[in-house]
Amino acid sequence: MRTADPELHRQRRQQIVGAAVELFATKGLAKTTTAEICRAAGVSTGNLFHYFPSKLAIFYALFEVDRDEWDELFAATAADPDPWAGLMRVVDQLAADAAHPVLAGLLVEIFAQAHRDPECAALVAEGDQRMLRGITALVERLVADGRADPVVPPPDAARWVLTTTDAFHTRGYPEPDRDRTTEIAQAKRVIARLLGHPEGR
Amino acid sequence: MRTADPELHRQRRQQIVGAAVELFATKGLAKTTTAEICRAAGVSTGNLFHYFPSKLAIFYALFEVDRDEWDELFAATAADPDPWAGLMRVVDQLAADAAHPVLAGLLVEIFAQAHRDPECAALVAEGDQRMLRGITALVERLVADGRADPVVPPPDAARWVLTTTDAFHTRGYPEPDRDRTTEIAQAKRVIARLLGHPEGR
DNA sequence: GTCTATAGAGGGATAGAC
DNA sequence: GTCTATCCCTCTATAGAC
């Protein structure tokens, strides 16, 4: 008898998810057909449904990748003795994600889906809470060190940091004269001013 | 011969668009069928396509309503002798739109569509530019009056105002403990601080 | 008589089920 | 791989205004 190989299983799932990401981002969830995903991933229909029960399940699997990456980054910032540097690393990562065409397209698709699908909304909420916890911890350390004096309590301030980084996402249209570098620098100054950090003066 | 009636034409288009808005917002563009729109609007298939060449054309028509409303508001703020009061009216309007469940759902759908449809992206860009022009004018008046000292030039500051108001939008999941009133007050303080207006101190 | 508004059946394409 | 269902849109037809 043939036993299940967990490593192969994980690899096949990864292969399918990787192929689906690009399709979801460019065509949208509704307009992406399972047949296309099969073609892109190089698996048969039957095989695809062996690894995922539905098209939506593939979509939801995307969240796992994101979760693992952010857990890793926040662990690093927690270990960093300088909370401001850690916060700036978070900002840089968010900027990098927003500049990534596939990820950016995927995100708007995820928000649209979350607005009408409670399961997707729960996954988004979970990710958001994780982000907010991580950033709040950094802000609290800044306040404790006497290096910040935010207009609002740290949890709210953390939310404002996320709002600020939302500026990295275009509203769906390309802005040709966009300078990502100065944009990030501006965002950091804005955050500094919001948090009452010396760099915002 | 029978002549075209512009008023009837306008009315029928409005009727169709009005019915479609809700469907687009709740089900999404792709999952809304023209048959459903017909049923909701109380018109036949043939009639619907007499007024709009395609389903997408109905979607695009939504932008016209938005444009007219904002033109009106910005005309009012331009006439208002107090630019700060005008800016706060803009913020209030943006907050009201974000709190409106149908409009909020529609907006994420529009952004998702814009990410893969250049025509939609152009319409979004046009609306954005209009918003930025209006806000920039208000910021410039504040600076001229010596009532503001933004960290960045007025056009960039206007962009940051819009980014701040993005906080009003949910990320697609219900946030039960959300207090819209204090949220708006916070946003106004944040904007004041960004612009270097006295209320941000 | 000609053009507009409306209606609804069905074509052509395609997705998903079995 | 076949079969059914569905969807966007076209086409033809009718009623009535000018």
TrEMBL record, chains A, B:
InterPro entries, alphabetized: BetI_C (IPR039538), DNA-bd_HTH_TetR-type_CS (IPR023772), Homeodomain-like_sf (IPR009057), HTH-type_TetR-like_transc_reg (IPR050109), HTH_TetR (IPR001647), Tet_transcr_reg_TetR-rel_C_sf (IPR036271)
Keywords tagged on the record: DNA-binding, Repressor, Transcription, Transcription regulation
Residue range(s) of DNA binding per entry: 33-52
Domain HTH tetR-type: 10-70
Keyword flag Transcription regulation: yes
SUPFAM superfamilies: Homeodomain-like, Tetracyclin repressor-like, C-terminal domain
Protein name: TetR/AcrR family transcriptional regulator
